[in-house]
# Entry
Amino acid sequence: MLHASGARRHASLTAVLSLAFAASALFSVVLTRDENSVAALWLANGILAAALLVLPSRWAAAALAACAVLSLTINFATGAPLRLAPAFTALNLAEAGLAAWLVRRTLGHRPRMGDLRQLLQLLGLAVIPACALTALPAGAIISTAGGGFWATSWSWALAHVLGMAVTLPAVLLLVHGRSCPDFRRSRAERAAIYGSVVGLSIIAYLPATFPTPILLTPLLVIAAFRLGPRGAALTALTMSVVCTLVVTKGPVAKIATLWTPVERIHNLQLVIALGFMTSLSVALILAEQARIRRLLAMRTRAAKRAQARAQAAGAAKAEFLATMSHEIRTPMNSILGFTQTLIRRDDLPEEARRQLHLIDRAGASLLALVNDILDFSKLEAGEVELALRPHRPAQIAEESLAIIAPAAADKGLDVRLEVAGPADAVAEVDEFRLRQILLNLLSNAVKFTEAGRVDLVLSIREQGEALLLRFEVRDTGVGIPRERMHRLFRRFSQVDSSVSRAYGGTGLGLAICKGLVEAMGGLIGVKSAPGAGSVFWFEITADAAAAEADSAPRGEAADLSGLRVLLVDDHPMNRDLGRTVLGLLGCEVAVAADGAEALELAGRLPFDAILMDVHMPVMNGLEATVAIRALDGPAGGVPIIAMSADVLPEMVERCRRAGMNDAVGKPIQIEALHGALARWGGRDVRGRGQPAEAAA
# Structure
């Protein structure tokens, strides 16, 4: 069925193109053939060349045969000399065939008029060479009948180039050109444009003092803008036919003018060439722009869909990591918590104590690995948000050095802090992230230093209303060879990546440091030499602040005996561990399994502090905090400390906004918990910090 339909289509197209060839040949012969038997505008060969290009080989051969018979018939019917008619037919067929062959060599087997470049290639590499090659034998043949060889050859080449330049692209566009939705117009508008072209073409060459033909080109350009390449080709073809009729058979041809018939024909050829090339070029450029706009719109939609999928995948990844972090930290809380509790016992054998220290150290390494993976995933996704608050950089440096001091002491290393500049300066910084960078660099320095010292140098320089903070971590360790420095600050990369490397690690620490420093708008780098130690440094600029934040008062570690603490946690093992740790600290402990139970106990019993888990059934920790803050009396002002495995900065900030005063992460670190209770225990925090708001 499809084969029969295709055959009918090809047969119809063959018949239409053959008849168009005959009509255009008759038009050119009758109207524009001069005394040398050369037409001023020869349209037929472009139609035949297009037929050879758009039809399958069998139908193309049929069209070639039909056009040969029609050409001979027209030549004989119009009085061409018997000895010249077969020669003219042969030259026309050869010219069309040569042009079609050159087009295929230039534009491929199925040529398209898709853009201006293809049009110029068709004209310059196919139409002009084919017509020029046939013009020479045509001039030789016609010159035997008395015409001049060069004049005849030139007239033939000009007429055939112009005719084929109009009809060949026009037929290709009409047969194979795609209908662009940007150029769809109403029937009334199309009729108005074509009618204007016909009307102006008629009056353009009537006797007049004004050079009316120059108005044809702007009209054709308007048609190109409104109708696109197909419309431009049809209007140019219409203009060519109508103007030729007027010039050869209209009133201007019958009266004396300043121009001879040959000059009028040449003027006509120039107008047709300029109008056609201008309008079709504009139309092809507009069509290409429309295609690019559609392609851009399509790719924009695809990009938005891909972005939506990526965002959904990122959200799923973040949710997965948060869930996995919480699930990993929950059992680790018991492992590390009970390990630290057992270490504090006095009745342990020394070997058991040593083994517990090993368990504690291994658990801490696993916890550091989980933290690194979470932080790096957040950096990769660009989801790190800085919580800027007034802090003293010198104090952050001092506390960071104090944290790694025990590990340095175990290796016999000296540690020292040096501050250059105003040590009491306060800056708007993210205390958590800044301490994270320092601890990472200081831990590396301790790890890679076997003897000597580790120094932390802080330089503070005022720059108007901002402070330039430069931190340097100096060690006397193994140093780094120059050829291996490129591995630093890259993810999953280490200076020594061999299977026999002496130091472990994920290779994420420095990559996280680099990401955090860049998130703060700073720079990070290293100076090192083998055997001479290393200096890791980073610089950030922070706004100066008037005073340190008041939301987290600091206090000395105090005796917590008798401190009444409400421990809220949905996990039985965590409640057991919390009760044990708080008992060691001398606290009086009450427990609740969810936020609703905590709210009921807080409203009924007096407490000095509440340790609140965040993720719980029935009522989560954020909702419970908001509800407790709304209680009347002392219960509404009790300090609430978040104690959760979700220690991401975003969650910590949500806890603060809900009304919590501090946050302690899981696994429980006894010293951190003791410090938080010492700072807040027994205080009335009503009205401090930011107002509570409902959790999302």
